[in-house]
Amino acid sequence: MAYARAPLPLVFDAPRRGKPPLHLADLDPAGRRAAVEELGEPAFRARQLAHHYFVRLSNDPAGMTDLPSAARDRLVSALLPQLLTPVRAAQTDKGSTRKTLWRMADGALIESVLMRYPGRVTMCVSSQAGCAMACPFCATGQGGLQRNVSAAEIVEQVVDGARVLARGEVPGGPGRVSNVVFMGMGEPLANYRSVLGAVRRLTDPAPDGLGLSARGVTVSTVGLVPRMHQLADEGVPVTLALSLHAPDDELRDELVPVNTRWNVAETVEAAWQYAARTRRRVSIEYAMMRGVNDQAWRSDLLGDLLRSYGDWGWVHVNLIPLNPTPGSRWTASDPADEAEFVRRLQAKGVPTTVRDTRGREIDGACGQLAACDK
Ligand code: SAH
User: Fold this and answer.
1) Is 325 in the pocket of ligand 1 (CB under 6 A)?
2) pTM to 2 decimals?
3) Are 166 and 30 members of one domain?
4) Are residues 184 and 284 in the same domain?
5) Residue 194, domain CATH
6) Which residues have a Cβ under 8 Å from the Cβ of 228 and sit 6 or more positions away?
7) Domain count, the chain
8) Which distant-in-sequence residues (6+ apart) come within 8 Å of 68 by Cβ?
9) CA 96/CA 216 separation, integer angstroms
10) Is 371 in the pocket of ligand 1 (CB under 6 A)?
11) Which of 173, 266, 277, 324 is at a distance of 20 to 30 A from 228, taking alpha carbons?
């Protein structure tokens, strides 16, 4: 199937605030070999370096004993620079939820969150410093976009989590990252190249990448339709989440302003096509806002809309209790309304779950990442 690829409007081009330093994790294996050769080293050193970074999770030249000592510092400073400096960290759930505020080389700030559950560890990463999508209920959306995050800056957020887990610093003993969700700051599909590069680094088998399963990686989008089609073409079967929040255009125009460009019908159609082509079940995200989008009739409308594409298990609905953000005029739904909303969807045969609110106490839950340096 071919899709028209309309160029995205200029609003999606992030201002070039500062170009982050080049890093091994920005490059694919061929690019790494070329970069190493440019530094006057044999190409096979690229793989040695990748082993240190993706397998040993190290960028310390002292431990790279398989590299000639003269080459170590040069290779590390050229290809494994420190991209993220921790500014602040917060913990909750007895240490099994940890949020970190990072400063990037040019001063821009992002946040990442590690969540350990029995049997899995999820890293929630930021793909942009700020966000241009301006959803009024989301803290990140309020400050506009500072800049895109590079592929390596995304990977570094995951590698940091992997290091903390490997050192046994998260309760539950030494562990590994199993899932990565692009649900931190930013609209991942508005930073397509970097996000796809990061996805490849995360899913490439070691030592070329971290070797995570693609099904453990979730890319969440406001619904940039051409980019959703493009993602389906890439052959990396990541899970797609569509932030719908309303089944009707009148309300969604307000809650997710990009709806005026790609409406409910177009974006749900693109989500269905993603599921049909990747055979990956799509997740519909729906933040429950009291008296705004949580009415029984909207549950029915949502259920009918999703069912109109068939009942072969292409979709499930993930309700997110609205997390409070400063100055927001919206609050979470009444539990009885939420339960009725779920019941109606399930009665129509739409699998529906309610997301937990991990990290809420440390402003680390969905929609709360604002990265203010206070
Ligand atoms: N730009 C991407 C990723 C953003 S965050 C996207 O919109 O999908 C991931 C999810 O958190 C999105 O579904 C987003 O709509 C939701 N979210 C944003 N603010 C929220 C809030 N205050 N409470 C609950 N969920 C929120």
Assistant:
1) yes
2) 0.94
3) no
4) yes
5) 3.20.20.70
6) 189, 221, 240, 242, 267, 270, 271, 273, 274
7) 2
8) none
9) 19
10) no
11) 324
